[in-house]
Amino acid sequence: MQFKTIAIHSHQHPDPVTGAVINPIYQTSTFAQEDAGVHKGWDYSRCGNPTVDTLAGVLADLEGGKHGYCFSSGVGALVTMCNALFVPGDHLLIGDDVYGGTFRYTTKVLAKYGVEIEFIDMTDPQNVEKAIKPNTKMVYMESPTNPLLKLVDIAAINHIAKKRNILTCVDNTFASPYLQRPIEMGVDIVLHSTTKYIGGHSDVIGGALVLKDDSLNDAIRFHRNTIGANPDPFNSWLTLRGLKTLGLRMDAHCASALELAQYLENHEAIETVFYPGLPSHPQHELAKKQMKAGGGMISVRVKGGEKEARQLLKSVKVFTLAESLGGVESLIEHPALMTHLSVDPKVRQEIGITDNLIRLSVGIEDVADLKADLAQALQVISGKAPATV
Ligand SMILES: Cc1ncc(COP(=O)(O)O)c(C=O)c1O
User: Fold this and answer.
1) Looking at the structure, do residues 8 and 130 belong to the same domain, yes or no?
2) Which atom, in ligand 1's list, is nearest to the CA of 76?
């Protein structure tokens, strides 16, 4: 089956008792047992629930993996994975431009338990080769990165890690399995914030891990049950509903984002556009190699500084000023003041999260309306139209 068919039909069949086409929400914490320890496969919803397990199964199939697990958030997935796989003294190599919450958890929590965390620029795979130490346990990649939309060569880095038996994980949140499939490139674990494109409607928080094979499965399952960062059945059902249209939505996000990126690139009020689908993106060739399209996220540096950036945020009318991404509605945000506030200001400057950087999550509204909205807001920051707010 192809992607859009898997998203709709995998693990989802009409209910044999009622004929219901849509899988029910098993909103239950516990399950009746015929005899002590004798049940139909589920005993307690922290350890497994039919609705949650259906979502996990579909995600595993869409990523081309063998085992899937769902969590109450993307961060819950990250914490569970790290608890399962790291012991004191291990070394974690991680991209220097990852999601702010990943930065916060690894530096402020995981490091407390004796795991050595090292951030490096992974846009050159040789940096990974050079940074590997005898105690390196995992190479953790994010591609495209948040918010600078840098790419890492997943296959090349995975190859370097595998030569030394080092685990690899890719945060595939920005691309979604529709655009990029790290497990097919040899990666061991794919991590998602299902809050974003997978859910797709900005109405749930969730996360997932998909594993390539059996070797890590017991550890992840044990820690999932033990830590308890579980999603509830209703959230999982909403995510399943959103997931059915992932392919259609991604096609629309990508087409509109490309059109807007081209428009912004030629706008006098914009200094730089970061979008992997543009030929001007320094890793456009890599994008073509490992992604199906450029994705729905664009970052721009406006001409000027924080003042101009704030003015743009206040002048848009269709885009909503909000954190998060990947929903049907377009969002706009200021990484330095919002999503990446927890990153040390010095580090933010070093890696390019400047005060004039704005991140756009392009939704699936009519692109003409999105373009007109940006056009009128950019008129304001160019001083060609009065600020109305
Ligand atoms: C790339 C990426 N990974 C992980 C997360 C964490 O996900 P959640 O907010 O669902 O915990 C986010 C959240 O923005 C993200 O953007």
Assistant:
1) yes
2) 11
Q: Residues enclosing ligand 1, CB less than 6 A?
A: 73-75, 99, 101, 142, 146, 171, 173-174, 193, 195, 205, 207
Shared domain check, 201 and 275: no
pLDDT of residue 389: 47
> Are 274 and 222 part of one and the same domain?
no
Mean pLDDT (the chain, rounded) = 96
Which of 224, 243, 262 is the last residue before a domain boundary?
A: 243
Query: How deeply is 285 buried, as exposed, middle or buried, from its count of CB atoms within 10 A (0-12, 13-18, 19+)?
Result: exposed
Question: How buried is residue 18: exposed, middle or buried, by Cβ count under 10 Å (0-12/13-18/19+)?
Answer: exposed
Q: Give residue 194's identity as a one-letter amino acid code.
A: T
Q: Which pLDDT tens digit goes with each residue over 38-95? A: 999 999 999 999 999 999 999 999 999 999 999 999 999 999 999 999 999 999 999 9
Q: pLDDT of 147-182, one tens digit each?
A: 999 999 999 999 999 999 999 999 999 999 999 999
Cα dihedral across residues 10, 12, 16, 19: positive or negative: negative
68 and 57 within one domain: yes
For atom 14 of ligand 1, the residue with the nearest CA is 324
Question: Ligand 1 centroid to 74 CA: how many Å?
Answer: 5
Determine, yes or no, domain membership for 389.
Answer: no
Q: Are residues 207 and 282 in the same domain?
A: no
What pLDDT, in 10s, does the model give residues 260-317?
Answer: 999 999 999 999 999 999 999 999 999 999 999 999 999 999 999 999 999 999 999 9
- Number of domains making up the chain: 2
